[in-house]
Design brief:
mainly alpha, 80% helix, globular
Length: 423
Amino acid sequence: MKSETSIKLGLKENAGQFWLLVLVNGFVGAMVGLERSVIPEFAESMFSLNGNTALLSFIVAFGIAKSLANMLMGRLSKRYTRKQLLLYGWLFALPVPWLLLYATDWWMVIVANLFLGINQGLAWSATVVMKIDLVGEKSRGLAMGINESAGYLAVGLVSFLAGYIASESGVITYAFLPGIFFSMAGLLLTAIFVRDTRAHVQTESVQSNLPLLRNIWKDTTWRHPNLGSVTLNGFINNMNDGVLWGLLPVLIISKGYSLAETGLLAGIYPAVWGLGQLITGKLGDVLCKKQLLSLGMMLQGVAIGMLLLADNYQLLVAVLAVLGAGTALVYPNFLAVVAENTHPDERPQTIGVFRFWRDFGYVAGAVAAGVFSDIFGISAVIAGIALLTAASGVLSEIRMCCTRKQLWHSKECDISRVNLQRN
C-alpha cells in the first residue's frame, strides 16, 4: 500500500481506479435498466395487475429501500471501508434476477425491488464517494458528470436490451437473465480489482480547511444555505422524474402518437440527460454551480409545463430535449456541491443524507403519478410539478452562494457560512 505522503489526488493520477469504478457503476445502473421498460407488461401478463398499480408499488418499494440505504451508507462508513460497502451492495444484487425469473407472486417482485434499492443505495453511493475521494477538488464536476452519465446510459441501454429480449423471445422473464451476469461481474470486479480510497481521504483531510458541520442531518437537509438548497433541488428533481416516469407515456399517447413513437419520444429526455452530463459536469468545475443549478431547475420547470402545450411533433421533441438539458445541468453538480461544502471526513454522511432525500423524491413522484392523477387529472399533476420545479430553482438563486475559486464569488456568503459553522 502506498504511504500517505505518496498519494496524489486527481483524475489523471488515479485514472485506472477511476475508470474501473465507472465500469462498476455502469453495472449498478444496468441492474435498474432490467425492469424499467418491461415491469408494467410483466405485472399485467404474469400477475394480472394493471400498469399503474405495478408502477406505484415498484417505485415506492424501490425508492424507500434506496433512500434508506443511502442514509445507512453514510452511517456505516464510520465502521466499514468504502470498498466493503460496495461489496455489500453487490451482495444484495445477487438475488434480484433470480427472484424476478422465478416469481410466482407479486410480493416476490416487491422483495426483489427492495433488494435492488439497497444495492443501488450502497453501491452507487460508494462509487460516487470513491470517485470524489480519488479526483480531489479540481475535477469533481467532471468526475460526477462521467459517473452519472455512465450510470444512466447503462440504465437506458439495458432497458432497451430487456425490451428487445422480451419482444424477440416472447418470454418476458428472459429479460431478467442479463442481471445474473451484471451482478456477478460487479461483485467480482469489486472484490478483485477495486482498491479502497481511505488513504486518499486522509491526504485530502490534511489539506482541507473546511470546518466540520455542527449537525450533519440538519445542515444537509436544510440549514446550510448550499447543502440545504441542493438537497431540496435533488428531492424535487427526482420527484418530477418519478411523475414523468409514470405519466409521460400516457400524456404522449393522449396526443395521438403510436406506441413506437411514444417510446422514441420518451427516450429523448433521459438520453439528453445522460449524455449531457459529460459537458455539464465539467462546466461545474469552471463556472459557479449556483447558476447551473438554478438555471437547470427553472429550465426543467418551463419544459414540464410546455409538455401540456406542445401540439406538434417537432415542438414536443424540442421540449423534451430542453427538459433533458435542464436535468443534465443539475444532476452531476448536485453531488459536486455536496462534496465541496463538506469536510472529507464527513463526506459519506452528507452524501448519504442528500441521496436519502433526493431518492425519496421518487416515492413522492410515484404517489403523485399513481394517486393524485386519478383525483385531479394528469394535466393538474404535471402543471403542479412544473411549478414546484421552477420555484425550487428560484429559491436556489436566492439562497445559494458560490464557493471559492469560482466566478460570481460572494463575500457575504462566506460570512454566512462561517457564522453557520460557529453557531
